[in-house]
Specification:
Length: 409
């Protein structure tokens, strides 16, 4: 089996050869993975910084997660009833996440942000929502919107303009834009990635999240942190803990499922109980809280705590960041926050989508190809973030730095 023949076949049966578009940019098919490493069907080994686009903070095939999933498999995979594991999982989340008293488990980050926005609209009886240009909250209608000539337009074909007409895109890290968008006191929620991870890695400016929190309080707007990437990565309590700013509603995904599909909506009981069956905001799903994701997620949370994963991972992360900084050419910049990073060429820094548009993407792709040849798998787009796992140890990091010094120009 080789990559070229699989690609030929994949393109016959799967649109573009893939089931999710970004994967079309990666020229290999994976056979297996373990820890910080992936192996393709031709046996080539890669150090993985893509890590499933974020979930795999414990690396691939962590033994505790595999054991938990195997144990659950023996007892069945779906019941259509509640299970004790769901309660244990919810309790654990509530224990470690600030400001969350109850959760609803769904199956993807997309469903989580869709549910969170519906919840916010149901709670406030308002229809408008504010998003940040260039942010990603999944693949559903009202967040696939972009600013266009002072108004808003769908960012995908197939979405009626009416479905984004209540979405207001504003510039990230711009508190004046936020204040203006919320000033009419008729916005249900503002949803944001505390660290923008779908334009590479853009941290919030100092004081930005605090200011947004303040404006939300003044205008009766609910603040939604989309922590699908940052949750359980920046800290056990995610960006809320790391930046010490409370959101009204939080969404999780990725890491929380221990490598299996998941999405989570969390908030105070008074807000959460607007969801069905207690309240009138509809949410449901055949696979919601499914036993395999619950078992894997619960095992992941245990390991994160027991092994003090963040402390160790952040230490190797700093080692990598310091190493990269020494190797960067003068016209490149490294942006990072606790376990996520990206390199931009041809700019001094990137604070929002307009600055992201100015980066030298072709140079990034040349760098990416060079790294891939050296056996380092980074995300195949400058607008995705690199991630580091618990299994990226000093020798893995040294090998990565050696490759970077060879490839970067
Ligand atoms: C990945 C991602 C999502 C969507 O999650 P899926 O599980 O892919 O649907 C939502 N928000 C953010 C910030 C993400 O990075």
């Amino acid at each position: 089996m080789n990559n070229a023949s699989l690609l030929d076949e994949a393109q016959q049966y799967l649109v573009g050869g893939v089931n999710s578009p970004i994967r079309a940019l990666t020229p290999f098919f994976t056979k297996k993975a373990r820890g910080a490493y992936l192996w393709d069907v031709e046996g080539k080994e890669y150090i993985d910084y893509c890590l499933g686009y974020g979930p795999l903070i414990l690396g691939h095939a962590h033994p505790d997660i595999m054991a938990a999933v195997k144990e659950q498999l023996k007892r069945g995979t779906l019941y259509g009833t509640s299970t004790e594991t769901e309660i244990m999982f919810a309790k654990e989340i509530v224990k470690v996440v600030p400001n969350v008293e109850m959760i609803r488990c769904v199956n993807t980050g997309t469903e989580a942000t869709m549910g969170a926005l519906r919840l916010a609209r149901g709670v406030t009886n308002r229809e408008k929502v504010v998003v940040f240009s260039g942010a990603y909250h999944g693949a559903h209608e009202c967040v696939l919107a972009k600013a266009k000539k002072g108004s808003v337009a769908p960012s995908s074909k197939g979405i009626p303009a009416a479905l984004v007409s209540n979405t207001i895109p504003v510039k990230f890290n711009d508190t004046e834009a936020v204040a203006a968008a919320l000033s009419s006191n008729d916005v249900a929620a503002i949803i944001l990635e505390p660290v923008m991870g779908n334009l590479g890695c853009i941290p919030p400016k100092k004081g930005f999240l605090e200011e947004v929190r303040k404006i939300c309080n003044e205008t009766g707007t609910l603040l939604i942190f989309d922590e699908v990437i940052t949750g359980f990565r920046l800290a056990m309590g995610g960006a809320q803990e790391h930046y010490n700013v409370d959101a009204d509603i939080v969404t999780f995904g990725k890491i929380a499922g221990g490598g299996l599909p998941i999405g989570i909506i969390g908030s105070q009981a008074g807000i959460m109980e607007h969801f069905t069956p207690v309240g009138k905001v509809y949410n449901a799903g055949t696979f919601n809280g499914n036993p395999l994701s619950m078992a894997a997620g619960l095992a992941a949370l245990h390991v994160l705590k027991r092994d003090k994963v963040h402390r160790r991972m952040h230490r190797s992360f700093d080692e990598l960041m310091n190493g990269i900084r020494c190797l960067l050419p003068e016209d490149a910049v490294l942006q990072s926050v606790k376990g996520m990073f990206q390199i931009y060429f041809g700019v001094d820094g990137v604070c929002d989508h307009t600055e992201a548009a100015n980066v030298d993407k072709e140079r990034y792709m040349r760098f990416w190809k060079g790294m891939l040849k050296e056996g380092i798998f980074m995300p195949p787009s400058n607008y995705e973030s690199n991630f580091v796992s618990y299994y990226h140890d000093s020798s893995t990091i040294q090998n990565t730095l050696d490759a970077i010094s060879k490839v970067i120009k």
